[in-house]
Design a protein that fits this description.
By secondary structure, the chain is mainly beta. Helices cover 0% and strands 52% of the residues. It contains no helices and eleven strands. Strands 2, 4, 5, 6, 9, 10 and 11 form a seven-stranded mixed sheet that branches. A four-stranded antiparallel sheet has the order 1-3-8-7, with no helix packed on it. A hairpin with a 4-residue loop joins strand 7 and strand 8.
Amino acid sequence: QVQLVESGGGLVQAGGSLRLSCATSGRTVSTYAMGWFRQAPGKEREFVATISWSGVRTYYADSVKGRFTISRDNAKNTVYLQMSSLTPEDTADYYCAAKLATWSGDWSYTENEYDYWGQGTQVTVSS
């Protein structure tokens, strides 16, 4: 079992920045690919970013590319999502998720490939 707890959400003005954290516990998370997803009010949950367990490979949704950066510190069992140049369209509940990796570069943007999910943290961007 892997437990995921997100933090760092809040209210920020458009153009501002936030850093989300996802603290993990349980099994060794260094062998898990990690992802961030978000769900805006009245919308389906969507992929945001993913990172391989090695940290070498990352992939982003087009909507956040160049503005968001995913990273991980396996020694601290924590995954981060640095968000900058935020817009009201980024307002959503943000979830981190863990996927048992099949190789060091494994990652996924597919929601149903993830095995564990956090409870989410809310991000609100005001205009």
